[in-house]
Design brief:
The protein has eleven helices and twelve strands.
């Protein structure tokens, strides 16, 4: 049986269509819907092209890098392979979904978010009498634009050095690039939580041993955590970000419940104070704990997916080929995130 994917004309111009990706362009030429009920229904358009040119990218029997360059058309697939491997590295151990309430994709570099910061009077649950005015929630555009950051790595390798490397091994290197880019995005998100997005909305900072947080300055106690948790009303502290304070947190007597300890030792699943998701990042400053309500605190703005210099990769000019991703973060509700410093 002849399939349409075997006759798709591939060229580097498929990477340069504005507002769309290489895979989406391929899907237009070779829609996946027409493969329902066939042995190929589990493959997307790019994976069908790999099958067309018999390129295996996974497993001990994966092909070498030079297999992509056996023909001009198969070489066109190489940048997408690189981008997918980098994205996989970004998605592995990605904690951003546990920190962001919404993700917005834009096609330009300028974005102005919205915000609604109610005062105490607005948060009160008031009875609305007949004929009385209904309490208002004001939503406004932020004064300043969201700052977008381009994060990436330079792929520096001669074609001669990697042409005989197995794709499965080469993918590991590309995934490491993705993991690095993702860590930079996490650092950007933490910076916005702590210092604001340029619209005078930095998170409130509390110090252990200073009212309203109990305990002794410089030490972490369960009492201090409870006091910190109580500052979030009407929000819920459902996510906790820590750096080197992770060890102090896990050493609290209240966190050493026998059953919880067995779960941690057996599965690696961390004990979670107050039911919050516990996340670790080296971007969190020393002796600092960040709490947030992930449902209301942060918006991620993505200006581009993973971008690769496809011309260089197709032409085997891997030396100094950039792999980048552009994104930024905006505060939604200022009081949905707070910082606790041990002192």
């Amino acid at each position: 049986m002849a399939y349409q994917f075997e006759n798709v004309k591939l060229d580097k111009g498929m990477y340069s269509e504005a507002g769309t990706s290489f895979t989406k362009v391929l899907e237009k030429c070779d829609p996946s819907e027409q493969y329902k009920g066939t042995p190929l229904e589990h493959l997307d358009a790019f994976q069908r092209q790999l099958k067309r040119f018999d390129i295996k990218v996974k497993g001990a029997d994966s092909d070498v890098v030079s297999k992509f360059f056996a023909t001009w058309e198969s070489a066109v697939l190489f940048p997408e392979y690189v981008a997918r491997a980098v994205r996989q590295g970004m998605e592995e151990s990605n904690i951003l979904p546990f920190m962001t309430a919404a993700e917005t994709r834009i096609s330009g570099m300028d974005y102005r978010s919205i915000a609604s910061d109610p005062v105490s009077e607005d948060k009160a649950l008031k009875m609305v009498a007949e004929g009385a005015a209904i309490p208002e929630t004001h939503v406004r555009a932020q004064e300043n634009l969201v700052k977008l950051h381009k994060r990436g790595r330079m792929l520096v390798a001669s074609y001669e050095a990697i042409q005989f490397q197995r794709l499965d091994l080469f993918s590991v290197t590309l995934k490491q690039i993705g993991a690095y880019i993702n860590r930079m995005h996490v650092a950007d998100a933490i910076n916005v939580i702590r210092n604001g997005d340029g619209n005078s909305n930095a998170a409130a900072v509390y110090t252990v041993g200073s009212s309203p947080i109990g305990g002794t300055s410089g030490e972490l106690s369960y009492e201090a955590l409870v006091d910190f948790w109580s500052q979030f009303d009407p929000y819920t502290m459902n996510t906790i970000l820590v750096g080197d304070a992770m060890a102090k947190l896990l050493k609290l007597p209240e966190m050493q419940d026998a059953a919880a300890g067995l779960d941690f030792q057996g599965t690696g699943k961390l004990v979670t104070p107050m039911g919050a998701t516990l996340l670790r990042s080296s971007a969190v400053p020393s002796n600092t704990i960040i709490g947030l309500d992930k449902n209301y605190a942060l918006e991620m703005v993505r200006a581009s997916d993973v971008l690769v210099e496809y011309d260089k990769l197709i032409d085997r000019q891997l030396e100094r080929a950039a792999v980048t991703s552009i994104s930024g973060f905006s505060k939604i509700f200022q009081e949905a995130s707070k910082v606790l410093e041990l002192g």
